[in-house]
Design goal:
There is one protein chain. The chain is α/β, with parallel strands linked by helices. The chain folds into 3 domains: 171 residues, Rossmann fold; 250 residues, N-(1-d-carboxylethyl)-l-norvaline Dehydrogenase, domain 2; 39 residues, 6-Phosphogluconate Dehydrogenase, domain 3 (Single alpha-helices involved in coiled-coils or other helix-helix interfaces), CATH 1.20.5.320. The protein is built from 19 helices and 11 strands. The strands form 3 sheets. Strands 3-2-1-4-5-6-7 form a 7-stranded mixed beta sheet, sandwiched between helices. Strands 8-9 form a two-stranded antiparallel sheet. Helix 2 links the parallel strand 2 and strand 3. The longest helix is centred in the C-terminal third of the chain and has 34 residues. GO terms for molecular function: NADP binding; phosphogluconate dehydrogenase (decarboxylating) activity. Homodimer. Catalyzes the oxidative decarboxylation of 6-phosphogluconate to ribulose 5-phosphate and CO(2), with concomitant reduction of NADP to NADPH. Its EC number is 1.1.1.44.
Length: 477
C-alpha cells in the first residue's frame, strides 16, 4: 500500500514522484496515457517503492487511508474532470491536492465544493521548475486546514530547506496557497523583466559584449543582488551556439507567457493595488509579441543612438546595479502590498514573514534579501510597506542616485526600460505627500459633478463647485 498517489507524470509530476521516493515515501502513480506511465516505470522506477496503475479504481485502491492524492496536471478543466472521476472512489476524510498552476478562485471553489462532500482539498503552489521538483521545491499549500496535519511532514520533508527550515508552510484556507503562488509568479515576471532591461542597456547603451555582461552578472551575484535569476543570467549570457557565437543572440525576442503574471496584474486592478512594475512586465511581453510591427517601426522611426563612450561604462554599470536592486525592492513591496490587501478581503491570516522564507530556496525568485523581508515583518509594529521599513528605506536612499542615472541613460539612448522607470515613478509617487490627484478631482468635479474633499475641512465632507456657472461651492449631502 502506498502513502501517497500522484496523478500526472509530466516533467514536474515525474520529478516530484522521484523526490518523494528519495525521501522514503511509497507511492502510486497514474497518468491518463498509460504509455507515459510505462516509460516512467521503465526508466526511473526500478528498485523504488513505486506502484503503477493503469486505471483510477486500481490507483485509489492502492492507497492507505486517509488517501492522499496529488494532482500534477494542467490547470483548468482537466483538474475538475479528474476530481469528478475520483469522487465516487473516495471516502470522507480523503485528501486531494492540486499542485498545478491553478487560478486561486478555482481553488476556492473546489475547496468549498469538496468540503461539502467530506473531501479535504488543498491547493498547493509548487515553484522551482524541474530542478526544484526533483531536489526540493518551494511549496505553498492552502485549503482545508484539517488536511495539514496529515500532509505536513511529507511535504516539508520533500521541500527545499534553508538553515533547517522547510520552504513549505501552511498559508490559509480556500485559495490562499495558489494566491501566494500567483503573486510569486507576478514578482517573477517583474524580476525577469528588470534583468532583461539591464541586459538590453548593457548591450545597446553601453556597447558591452556578452562575455563582459556575463562577468558583470557573476560579480553582482556575489553581493546584495545574489539570486537564482542573476546566477542563471550570467550562465546563459556565456553559453555559445554551435558556431561559437552567443546563443542568446540567436533567440527570437518574442516572449511567451502562461497567464500567471496577467492574473496578478488583473487581480491588482480589482483590488485597487498599484502593482505598476508587474503590470509593465506583462505589457512588455505583450509588446514583444508584436515582432513584425516592431521591425517595421524601427525602419520608419529610427534606431537608438550610439552607445556611450567606453570610459563612462563603469560609472553606468554601478548605476545599473543600484537601479536593478532598488527596482527589485519595489517589485517585492508591491507584491506584499497585494498580499496584504487580499488577506483583508478574504479573511486570510497570511504569515508574511514565513512567505518570504518560503521563497528563500527551491523557487525562481529566491534571493538574498528575502531574509531582510522576514525581518521587516518581525518588527513591532510592522511597517505599512517594505518601503517604510528602516532597512529598505536606507537601501533605496543609497541607491536612488544610480537608479535615476540608469533611467536617464535609457531615456537618452532610446532603450526601452519600462519596469525600471515605472518602479522609480512608483517610488516617487509613494513618497509624495501632496500629489497631482487634486487636479484630477477638480477635473472630475468640473465635467461630472463627482465632488471633492478639502484638506482644510472634515474628510467625511464632500463638496461641488459650479465651475462653469457662478463659481459657488456647495456641500454635497
Amino acid at each position: 500500500m502506498s502513502s501517497i498517489g500522484l496523478i500526472g507524470l509530466g516533467v514536474m509530476g515525474a520529478n516530484l514522484a522521484l523526490n518523494l521516493s528519495d525521501k522514503g515515501y511509497a507511492l502510486s502513480v497514474y497518468n491518463r496515457t498509460f504509455a507515459l506511465t510505462e516509460q516512467f516505470m521503465a526508466v526511473h522506477a526500478q528498485g523504488r517503492a513505486i506502484v503503477a496503475a493503469d486505471n483510477l479504481p486500481e490507483f485509489v485502491a492502492s492507497l492507505t487511508a486517509p488517501r492522499v492524492i496529488l494532482l500534477m496536471i494542467t490547470a483548468g478543466r482537466a483538474v475538475d474532470a479528474v476530481i469528478a472521476q475520483l469522487l465516487p472512489l473516495l471516502n470522507p476524510g480523503d485528501i486531494i491536492i492540486d499542485g498545478g498552476n491553478s487560478h486561486y478562485p478555482d481553488s476556492t471553489r473546489r475547496w468549498q465544493e469538496l468540503r461539502a462532500q467530506g473531501i479535504r482539498f488543498v491547493g498547493m503552489g509548487v515553484s522551482g521548475g524541474e530542478e526544484g521538483a526533483r531536489h526540493g521545491p518551494s511549496l505553498m499549500p492552502g485549503g482545508d486546514v484539517e488536511a495539514w496535519p496529515v500532509i505536513r511532514e511529507m511535504f516539508q520533508t520533500v521541500a527545499a530547506q534553508v538553515d533547517g527550515v522547510a520552504c513549505c508552510q501552511w498559508l490559509g484556507e480556500g485559495g490562499a496557497g495558489h494566491y501566494v503562488k500567483m503573486v510569486h509568479n507576478g514578482i517573477e515576471y517583474g524580476d525577469m523583466q528588470l534583468i532583461a532591461e539591464v541586459c538590453h542597456l548593457m548591450r545597446h547603451a553601453l556597447g558591452m559584449d556578452y562575455a563582459a555582461m556575463a562577468d558583470t552578472f557573476a560579480l553582482w551575484n556575489q553581493g546584495r543582488l545574489e539570486s537564482y535569476l542573476i546566477e542563471i543570467t550570467s550562465q546563459l549570457l556565456r553559453h555559445k551556439d554551435a558556431d561559437g557565437s552567443p546563443l542568446v543572440e540567436k533567440i527570437l525576442d518574442r516572449a511567451g507567457q502562461k497567464g500567471t503574471g496577467l492574473w496578478t496584474a488583473q487581480d491588482a486592478l480589482e483590488h485597487a493595488v498599484p502593482l505598476t512594475l508587474i503590470a509593465e512586465a506583462v505589457h512588455a511581453r505583450m509588446l514583444s509579441a508584436r515582432k513584425d510591427e516592431r521591425v517595421a517601426a524601427s525602419q520608419l522611426l529610427g534606431k537608438p543612438t550610439e552607445p556611450v563612450p567606453e570610459n563612462q561604462r563603469q560609472a553606468y554599470l554601478e548605476a545599473l546595479h543600484d537601479a536593478l536592486y532598488a527596482a527589485k525592492v519595489v517589485s517585492y513591496a508591491q507584491g506584499f502590498m497585494l498580499l496584504q490587501t487580499a488577506a483583508r478581503q478574504y479573511a486570510w491570516d497570511l504569515p508574511y514573514g514565513d512567505i518570504a522564507l518560503l521563497w528563500r530556496a527551491g523557487c525562481i525568485i529566491r534571493s538574498r534579501f528575502l531574509g531582510d523581508i522576514k525581518a521587516s515583518f518581525a518588527r513591532e509594529p510592522v511597517p505599512q510597506s517594505l518601503l517604510q521599513d528602516p532597512f529598505f528605506a536606507a537601501e533605496l536612499q543609497q541607491a536612488e542616485s544610480g537608479w535615476r542615472k540608469a533611467v536617464v541613460l535609457a531615456v537618452m539612448q532610446g532603450v526601452p526600460a519600462p519596469a525600471l522607470s515605472s518602479a522609480l515613478a512608483f517610488y516617487d509617487g509613494y513618497r509624495c505627500a501632496n500629489g497631482s490627484a487634486n487636479i484630477l478631482q477638480a477635473q472630475r468635479d468640473f465635467f461630472g459633478a463627482h465632488g471633492y474633499q478639502r484638506v482644510d475641512r472634515d474628510p467625511a465632507l464632500h463638496f461641488h463647485t459650479r465651475w462653469g456657472g457662478d463659481g459657488v461651492e456647495e456641500q454635497l449631502p
